[in-house]
């Protein structure tokens, strides 16, 4: 009985997709927070703190 080992080769295309996704996500977050009103951003962060159970008052 003969067993053959297989190896997988990572291509640059398979590594560039997560990098591209993270870059677009980061740009989207920076763009969104840069154009949102400070009070809306504060209220969103405040609501998240309450939802996750962290005290904020």
From TrEMBL:
Keyword terms, alphabetized: Membrane, Transmembrane, Transmembrane helix
> What species was this sequence derived from?
Roseibium limicola
Pfam families tied to this protein: CbtB
Q: Transmembrane region positions?
A: 17-36
Give the superkingdom in one word: Bacteria
The protein here is known as: CbtB-domain containing protein
